[in-house]
Design goal:
It is a single chain. The protein is an alpha+beta fold. It has helices spanning 3-9, 80-91, and strands at residues 19-24, 27-33, 38-41, 47-58, 71-75. It has one domain. It has two helices and five strands; from the N terminus they run αβββββα. Strands 1, 2, 3, 4 and 5 form a five-stranded mixed β-sheet that branches. 4% of the residues are buried. This is ArsR family transcriptional regulator. Pfam families: DUF1833.
């Protein structure tokens, strides 16, 4: 049984941890849902620390036009990531 099969069958110690990588220019922010920071290996083999925060992620619906909008909410208590996101939205060209 693969790890993914076992994860979805709920018969092992593995758990799903929701993570989010936010790239704004050269800055990269790694966030995870929960109360404790998580160190994990990304798809490309980098080991990074995901900072714990309150967040909610709504996965995009599948559609035929090729666009998928990810919706998320986060409570970034120190304001670093939320401020960076707001600044990026305000600075983008129309």
């Amino acid at each position: 049984m693969t790890i993914l099969n076992r994860l979805y069958a709920s018969s092992g110690p593995e758990v799903i941890i929701e993570t989010l990588q936010i790239n704004i220019g050269d800055a990269v922010h790694y966030l995870c849902k929960g109360y404790e920071d998580i160190t994990a290996t990304t798809d490309n083999g980098d080991t990074v620390t995901f900072i714990a925060c309150a967040m909610d992620i709504a996965l995009p619906a599948r559609n035929a036009d090729g666009t998928q909008d990810l919706k998320f909410a986060l409570c970034n208590i120190d304001g670093v990531v939320s401020t960076a996101i707001r600044n990026a939205i305000n600075d983008r060209s129309p």
